[in-house]
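Suppose you are handed a protein chain with no further information: no name, no annotation, nothing but its sequence. What can you learn? This example shows the usual starting point.
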Amino acid sequence: MDPQRIYKNFIAGEWVESASGQTFENINPADSNDRIGQFQRSSGRDVAKAAAAAKQAYQSWRLVPPPRRAEILFRAANLLANRKEDFARDMTREMGKPLEEARGDVQEAIDMTYYMAGEGRRLFGQTTTSELPDKFCMTVRSPVGVCGLITPWNFPMAIPAWKVMPALICGNTVVIKPAEDTPLSVYNLVAVLEEAGVPGGVVNYLSGIGSEAGAPLVRHPDIKVVSFTGSVEVGREVAHACAESFKHLCLEMGGKNVIIVMDDANLDLALEGALWGGFGTTGQRCTASSRIVIHKKVYEAFAQRFTERACRLKVGNGLDPGVQMGPLITETQLRTVEKYVEIGQKEGAKLLCGGCRLTGAIYNRGWFFAPTVFGDCTPRMRICREEIFGPVVSLIPCDNFDQAIEIGNSVVYGLSSAIYTRNINNAFKAMREMETGIFYVNAPTIGAETHLPFGGTKQTGNGHREAATAALDFYSEWKSVYIDYSDRLQRAQIDT
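A reasonable first move is to predict its three-dimensional structure. Written in structure tokens, the prediction is:
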């Protein structure tokens, strides 16, 4: 790939430069000498052009029969599948996750695109009875309008697909702004949609900085729907902005997810799950297993084995064979992780391994941090309550099942949780009691599938869900239809 290549925005079916002509550089987090390309530094002027194009295209796209929209998505899914390896390598270069994980990210985009193509022949409503004679009742879905989509860097193709595909199949048009750290993966996704035959203006792509392009997108009067995935702090600002004009809003934000390991658990299985949940994607997942609550009867054995395995994880460039954990996304994120390691030590947590930036020939040009484990933690420690978004896992001992549930629910987030146990009664009790939108038994807190709703409770989100048919409820409006064929006035609730 030419490091001097300039990637353009996509507005009204054309690849164009930003209004200012300014660009920013996309850099490999594993190797700062690897310059991926220049991307447009968009502003409010670009947002206005994209929103206008999407608004105009909406008038015709909403009238395209959903099965015809689905045919375009199906072609796009085929193209994604054919180019999976190339797109995965692009993703590893710009985001850092190991190639195997990047392939999974692209596969999730493929799965979601096929799934939503299938919904083009459903988009089911309901038919039901009326309380009056000679009257027919049904519900149908209607599109909402122009959708503003703001996506994060940790899943740079999967999450955009979660948002774009249901929006399109429902008949909406979109303006998408990816995170400035990973614009190439969304560029690739949009280029595929163009090739698949999406009409001009239906999908618009803007790269840029959040405060310069994301904020104007959220506030633009022609944007009727906003879907945001990112931090709680920014999500709160987005919510305030959308409240002024009552925009439809889906927020998907933080998590401080827990794995509960009971004394009757299969410890070998729990160990594997905790390692993958805690250090997969370098801990940079909203569903990362950053807390492990362990029954005291097995705490010492589990902590020792977990620490030994964490220390042996192979860290490096995600394109290198055998690498199990890549870099952090930026120097800023690395410093955040360093800050939390210092906080944990000051709070009295026992640093069992890691806790430092990695140095040496293969690490000096990237943002690499050692897999880090804190032991003997208490639930009130900041490292056990606040989202770190890095390879830091806190081990918390507990006395019994009830205390484990209490600890698990003691944070402000409610995205994902898990329990390892052979006791079917406790598994079902935990399923009922955990205040999270996602729950696993004998599996880590990561691994969501596209045909189930994704999202959380409390400060993780605002109640809407992504993926599956739940996404259709967000990207469409219900319309209730009454057809009276009695040929006379009938007054509901009065004439019954």
